[in-house]
Fold this protein.
Amino acid sequence: MKAWEITSAGGIEALQLNERPAPEPGPGQVAVKLAANSINYRDLSTTLDPEARGLPYPSVPNSDGAGTVTALGAGVTGIEVGERVAGCFFQDWTAGPITPAAMASALGGNDPAVGGMLAEDVVLNARGVVPVPAHLSLAEAATLPCAALTAWHALMCAGGVKAGDTVLLLGTGGVSVFAQQFCALMGATTVVTSSSDEKLDRMTALGAGATINYRTTPEWERAVIEATGGGADRVVEVGGPGTLGKSIQAVRVGGTVALIGILTGAGGEIVPTDIMRKSLTVQGIYVGSREMFRAMNRAIDRHQLRPVIDETFAFADAPDAFRRMRSARHFGKLVIEM
């Protein structure tokens, strides 16, 4: 079978399409023929700097994929050959709080024993897959494991968003677009920031309540406070050090900041008193468990929600998907079809 491999620290140009032996499922595992992958910022950053994660060469990148079960390992029950499934980002986080062991089981990360999903065939833990909602294509299902589940977790943690709440969403990447779709289902009002009026118009079409162009309104945190009458109830914070301080200012007293991304870098400083004086909850979000994934899929199925796919690439053209992600011009998700 064919798989894309990171072969050196040469970035996207170091991706090579190579032959690998077809994997065979062991006890408690399933073999899956993948139909589609989706790209996340984490996949791009891993490809651009594999040595920061201690990746050996060659390594297969990407955490997200969906396909069809082709074989079952010994002892596997509750899954059938031919079933459509998506892989769980964390292969060993079934339910409950996250643990160090669960964190080590992330697909396409720094453990070569776990591996990645940018391949024609993969072997996954039987407890590390979930059924795909019937109305979704496998390309759509491939967008769910990281971005959608991260958005779901961010909205449902620390009490959960409810109808009438206000939620601040930063940007129009995969997590933020899914968060907008979920907020619309829950009856929550959103405020969305972006540097593109065209993208803001598309978020409005998905149900955004207010939009702010942060290039023309650099003090966007004040605009959020004005739009919400005192601050958002919750922030889905994907920017990191470049936006976190403003997000803390934009959330209401007693509100929640769901801290997810590092699109503006991994360093920076915050002022602790800004959090203390407002009695804020700042919750780190790292995707979610299989139990959360199944709950999210029930909501997706009930409301017939469809992911927003910006562009689809052929498997042979996978590096172009990484280049598109690097350009930051996409809206929603980028998909690679096998």
